[in-house]
Design brief:
- The protein is α/β, with parallel strands linked by helices and 738 residues long.
- The chain has 26 helices and 14 strands.
- The chain is 57% helix and 11% strand.
- The strands form 3 sheets. An 8-stranded mixed β-sheet has the order 7-14-13-8-12-9-11-10, sandwiched between helices. Strands 2-3-1-6 form a 4-stranded antiparallel β-sheet.
- A hairpin with a 5-residue loop joins strand 2 and strand 3.
- The longest helix has 62 residues, at 368-429.
- The protein is elongated.
Length: 738
Amino acid sequence: MQNEQAAARSLGDRTPAAYDSDSYALPPVIKQYWHTSLRWKWLIAGIIGVALAAGLLSTLLTAPRYTAKAQIEISREQKKVTNVEGLESDAADRDIEFYETQYALLRSQSLTDRVVKGLNLARREEFFAAHGITLDPEIFGSGGRVPPTASQQAEREKLAAKLLLANIQIAPVRRSRLVNVSYTSRSAVLSAQIANSWTQQFIGASMDRQLSSTADARTFLEGRLAVLRTRLEQSERDLVGFASRNNIITLGTTRDAEGKTQVQRTMAATDLEALNAALNIATADRIAAESRAGTSRGGEDSVEALANTTIAQLRQKRAEAAAEYAKMLVRFEPDYPAVKALRGQITALDDSIARETSRVASSRMMTYREAVGREADLKRQVGGLKARLDDEQRSSIQYNIFQREADTNRELYDALLQRYKEIGVAGMVGVNNIVIVDRASIPDRPSAPSLARNMALALVVGLGLAVIAILALEQIDEGVSHPGQIQQLFQLPTLGHVPLTDLEVVASMDDPKSYFSEAYFTIRSNLAFTTDHGLPRSFIVTSTRPAEGKSTTSYALARIIGRTGKNVLLMDGDMRSPDVHHLIEMPNTAGLSNLLAGDDNVGALIRPTKYKGVSVLTSGPTPPSAAELLSSDRIKALVAELQTMFDHVVIDAPPILGLSDAPLLGRAVEGAVLVIQAEGAAVRGIRAALARLRMGNTPVFGTVLTKLKASELAYGYGYGYGYGYGYGYGERADGQAA
């Protein structure tokens, strides 16, 4: 006893609440699954066998199918045929959208219809036969013998399209521009024809879309060009009209880096420049004449007048040439030969004027008065041109606005005209970005059915159905089948488990080295760790329902405890259906019921047994109401008195469900041991039994799993010992369960 207490103290508080998974670790999950599979192995084998048979039968009865595969390449970027920047769009960032669009087009209804019409599938009986379709004459006509009506032809085409879409496979090759186009049917030749036609029709549809797009673009650009042409003409008319109304005559224009027209010189500016030059000359002439002539007035003035007339004629010619030059610049570029020749003529006139002026200036006959008059006249002209130039500069703001509008319209028109020409060239070339890499060849062997694939699929389906069936059966079968479930379901420690045995209980317990005895010795050892003082002084052994092995467990624990040198009392608390006296082989003439009914002679009713350290108190005569006897305080007083007489008191209590006896007995002892029959009591019943014990404030030290089959013991549910034999236990000689 002292050793047990020391062990208990060294382990600390080992009450039922303190028992944790570190003491009774659950089996690994894989082992649990393996264990469950072994329980239902014949069901699993049957389901898998049926599935494999179905797979084999399906393979043998299925008509062979042939798959033909063609391969195409879809390029993202077209070749730049026109070599014009901007004509072909660069949208590399939209590759995903592009290829997804192409894959969708490969599965489109329009492409399917093209294939149907291209191969005339609606009129080919072998096409429908290759898909296991027998045409209904009432709906689809009479085959090839009589041409179908329009409605029948439409129905045939609709059905053919459905069959094509159901049997075509579009499979892009990863990380490439390649796409596999496969078709499957019962005809190898027809599969190859359809796969090849599918790729060819896809290329044709792509070309048609490109040509249609080009035609639409040309139509659109033609309309825009007409609008821009009208707008350009109007803007140029506005520009010329404004210049005419405001006497703005340009003599030279250039284009800047942006293509905008820049006016370099106007007629007024040119005339002002010329008059300023003439005024300077006249002023110089006047000064020179004044210097030469002084204050004298000679008769040589007429000669100088002639000279002035010549100069005037030269200037007149020069002005006419300049005007003609300005007109030509409006129509021609400065480098045009006629313009260059006219500019040379103007230069020659300027030279003549300069020579004549120089001659007049150098003439000694120039008079001071003529020089003064010419100078004054030029000053008046310069003043007038300055006023005109001021007006022209104020008008140039609006003129430049008209000029910019005309330039903008001209640029837009030229750009659209260039695009129109380039699109026309591209449309005539007919560029395509889809090429056939491999044509589909006629397959020489069927692709389906595959015996290996079908059997593997049948195996997977069979396993799946078996798993579903086992899960369903496990949910229906709520019994506890192995010790690991107890901790998982009820958070209670398993004190031990006892194998199923066909031998007599007494004979099994007589052999201390038997598996049966060792099982209960382990239970007794584990029970010693449930309290801080070692093995409980008093406890009841109960179960959820009858015949789970509680009486056998009570008897076996009493004998095991007695072997350790302790004095133990085995009391039969089941006054309704007593069983201990059968195991002890004693009469049940008097016992517990007598003591609870008022008999105080405890010592006379307790009888020793032939087993070392074990005494017994049988249940006694069956009382009218066992619950009334147990509900009195006499049971507590009796147990307390018995604890003074014995080291331990083991009570075989009645089942919990349906009776109140066990909870009433539980109030008089330290706790309870719950016996659970493997694959017997339902989980709901066990939970209800535990709830009733807790309502009576009866601690549950742990559980004992009884009648465990050898198959449950052989796969990892041992506690330091194993049971290799198919024992059973708990059956009395009269055939009734304990």
